[in-house]
Amino acid sequence: MKNTLSSPNKYIVFNTTNKTLVEKLHSSVFAFIFSKINGWEFRINDTEGIRLVEYYTSKVNWWSSDWKEIDGVNGRLNLLNIDDNDIEILNKVTFNSTYKDCNIVHLYSGSDLLNYLNIDDLPSLNEVFLTLFNIEDEFYDNFISIYEKLIMEPHLIMNVDDLSHNESKKLITSKIKEGKKIFLSGGESKLVREIKTKFPRYQFKSITTDTIKFDDVDVIEKLQVLSMVYQIHLMVKSHNLVICNRKIDKFIKDLHIGYNKIQYEESKELYEFN
To answer: What value does the mean pLDDT of the chain take?
Structure first.
């Protein structure tokens, strides 16, 4: 993706209306790439649900509200349900011609936007994500202390929330018996207690909050949100993962280059990243 110089006072404002935290982060990456391709400044208008600016910071000023101070022409581009009629507008020449009189274009789009962008040299989506979303300074040291413990002694990070209690216990037990150090993302407190009871000398690490729901748009309790933020970043930064969670697997797959799909217990799909 070639870096196009941003046009002064030209803003693509991505609107995160009614999205979960994972959906906001996932779709923001592609909205940012779309903005860069067209040479417009990128901003996020985030007024509902979990507010990204409370948990993330960035050198990219997506959090700035400077666009609200511009007395100019506003446009709107809804790509939430892209069809053949929308594809042409994604062409750089067509987009800039269509919105040539606008200072601000309000963009509504989802995580499928990337499928329709014609990009010769796609950047690393992992790097784009980590450029856009750094954990806020207030929480960063705590996150790093967790992360460093997992890389000093390499751990297999597992999020298997789509498996039943017994399926999860069986899979985790098999990985422990293979000699792997496990960090469990998500999961029930009961499951963690049972694993620790079964392997009392094994240092089993986890972040568990039984009420955490990656598909909940109304989560506002700070500890729950921080738990999600930490878990997402651990999965994004790690290259040693096992995931069985339909709420997050597409997001994690898009941000990692290599993974294997494994059929588990006939009806469940696991993704192994390495």
So the answer is: 88
Choosing from 102, 119, 135, the residue where a domain stops is 135
Under 8 Å between Cβ of 136 and 37: no
- Quick check: is 3 in a domain? no
Range of the domain at 172: 139-273
At 212, is the pLDDT very low, low, confident or very high (cuts 50, 70, 90)?
Answer: low
Same domain? 145 vs 245: yes
- For the record, the structure tokens of 117 come out as 């962008």
**Conformational region of residue 194, where left means phi above 0, alpha means psi within -120 to 50, and beta covers everything else:** alpha
Residues 90 and 166 in one domain: no
How many residues does this entry show for the chain? 274
Instruction: Compute CA 157 distance to the chain's CA centroid, rounded to the nearest angstrom.
Output: 16
Question: Region 134-163: what's the mean pLDDT?
Answer: 92
135 DSSP β-pair partners: 56
Shared domain check, 77 and 109? yes
Domain-located, residue 215:
yes
Report whether pLDDT(36) > 70: yes
SS3 assignment, position 61: coil
Q: How confident is the model at residue 5 (pLDDT cuts 50, 70, 90)?
A: low
221 found inside a domain: yes
Q: How confident is the model at residue 215 (pLDDT cuts 50, 70, 90)?
A: low
Rounded-to-integer distance, Cα 138 and Cα 141, Å: 8
